[in-house]
Write a sequence for this structure.
C-alpha cells in the first residue's frame, strides 16, 4: 500500500497551530518507524519543513517548492496539484493530517482521500467572535472544512467531542473515526540545575485560549496569598500583558519554545495551567502528566473526556475560582499526588504507536474494499 502523506502546507511557525505540526510530524515518524515493509510513504513537503523530515528513514520525499507556499499556491495545491501528484505517484491513499481535501468530488478510485479533522473551532469563531478574523477568512475556512468533510472517503477526528462538533455543523454521519492522539515526551538537554518554583501556563491571544481570564485568575491568586509563585506563560509576548502591567515583574512571557526549552519549562514547573474555552483534544495537560506536574484545566467536555480524573477542573471563565484552585492544589500536596497517580494510568491510553495502528487499519480497510 502506498500512502501519499501531504506535509506541504505544514511547517513550524506557519499558520495558527503548533499542535497540528507536532501531530503531523509524530504520525509521520511513527508510521515510518513502525513500517514492516508493507507500506510505502511518499511525503510532499516544502523546503520550510525539509530539515526535520529528511532525517526520517523509510520515506520518499517529493519537494514541491523550496519556499513555504503562499495563499495562491496553497489554493492551487488543494484544487489541482495535490491529487495530481498523488496520482502520479500511484498512491493508494492520499492522507492530509491538516484536514483539507484536494478534490472537487468524492473519489471512486485511487488515491482515496483520508483526512484528520482536528476540530470545528472555525465554526465556534463564526458564532462567538465573528469579527476577530476577516469575513473572507471566516467563510473560506468554514466552507473549505464543509467541502472537505463532504468529499473525503474517510474522516479521522481526535475526540468524541470533535466528532459531535462535526455532527453539529455537517450532515455527514458515516465513515468518521475517533482516533486519539499520542503524547510525546522529550528528554534532550533538560536543564538539571535547581530552579525556583513557578507556575507554568500555555495560552495565546486567540480568544478561545482564554488568556485574559487566566491572567486575571493568576493575579487574583497573588492577592490572596503571602508568598505567591511567579508565572511563566508560553505562547504570548510581554507587550500582550495589557491591563496587567503592574504584574510584569512576576510574569515571564515566552512567545515560542523549542523542544529543549519547552521540556525545561515543563519539567521544572510546580503547577501547570491550561484554561481554554474550547479544544479539539488538548495535548498540554497530558504532557504535564508525563513530566510529573499536576495540572489545573478548564472544565469543558473534551478535557473531561481526555483526562478523566487526571486533572483539577475549574470554571475557566471565573478568575476567583481559578485563583482558589491554584491555592487548593499548591496548599494541599495530596491533591497534586492524586492527579499524578491517576495520570500514570491515563497517559497509557495515548501513544503514537496505538494512534498509527488505528490509522493504518482505516487505510487498509478502504484499500481492501476497493481492490
Amino acid at each position: 500500500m502506498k500512502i501519499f502523506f501531504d506535509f506541504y502546507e505544514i511547517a513550524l511557525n506557519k499558520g495558527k497551530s503548533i499542535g497540528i505540526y507536532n501531530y503531523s510530524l509524530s504520525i509521520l515518524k511513527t508510521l515510518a518507524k513502525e513500517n514492516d515493509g508493507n507500506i510505502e510513504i511518499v511525503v510532499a513537503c516544502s523546503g520550510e519543513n525539509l530539515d526535520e523530515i529528511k532525517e526520517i528513514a523509510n520515506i520518499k520525499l517529493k519537494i514541491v517548492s523550496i519556499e513555504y507556499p503562499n495563499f495562491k499556491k496553497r489554493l492551487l495545491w488543494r484544487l489541482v496539484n495535490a491529487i495530481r501528484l498523488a496520482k502520479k505517484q500511484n498512491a493508494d491513499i492520499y492522507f492530509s493530517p491538516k484536514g483539507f481535501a484536494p478534490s472537487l468530488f468524492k473519489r471512486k478510485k485511487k488515491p482515496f482521500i483520508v483526512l484528520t479533522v482536528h476540530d470545528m473551532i472555525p465554526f465556534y469563531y463564526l458564532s462567538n467572535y465573528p469579527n476577530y478574523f476577516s469575513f473572507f477568512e471566516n467563510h473560506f475556512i468554514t466552507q473549505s472544512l464543509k467541502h472537505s468533510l463532504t468529499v473525503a472517503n474517510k474522516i479521522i477526528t481526535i475526540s468524541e467531542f470533535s466528532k459531535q462538533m462535526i455532527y453539529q455543523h455537517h450532515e455527514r454521519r458515516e465513515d468518521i473515526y475517533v482516533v486519539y492522539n499520542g503524547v510525546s515526551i522529550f528528554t534532550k538537554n533538560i536543564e538539571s540545575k535547581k530552579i525556583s518554583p513557578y507556575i507554568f501556563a500555555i495560552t495565546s491571544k486567540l480568544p478561545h485560549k482564554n488568556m485574559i481570564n487566566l491572567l486575571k485568575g493568576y493575579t487574583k491568586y497573588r492577592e490572596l496569598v503571602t508568598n505567591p509563585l511567579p508565572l511563566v506563560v508560553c505562547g504570548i509576548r510581554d507587550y500582550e500583558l495589557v491591563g496587567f502591567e503592574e504584574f510584569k515583574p512576576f510574569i515571564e512571557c515566552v512567545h515560542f519554545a523549542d523542544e529543549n526549552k519547552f521540556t525545561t519549562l515543563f519539567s521544572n514547573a510546580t503547577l501547570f495551567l491550561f484554561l481554554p474555552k474550547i479544544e479539539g483534544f488538548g495535548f498540554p495537560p497530558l504532557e504535564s502528566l508525563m513530566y510529573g506536574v499536576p495540572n489545573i484545566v478548564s472544565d469543558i467536555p473534551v478535557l473531561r473526556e481526555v483526562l478523566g480524573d487526571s486533572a483539577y477542573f475549574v470554571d475557566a471563565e471565573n478568575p476567583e475560582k481559578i485563583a482558589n484552585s491554584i491555592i487548593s492544589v499548591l496548599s494541599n500536596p495530596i491533591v497534586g499526588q492524586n492527579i499524578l497517580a491517576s495520570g500514570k494510568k491515563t497517559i497509557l491510553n495515548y501513544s503514537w504507536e496505538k494512534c498509527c495502528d488505528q490509522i493504518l487499519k482505516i487505510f487498509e480497510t478502504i484499500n481492501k474494499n476497493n481492490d
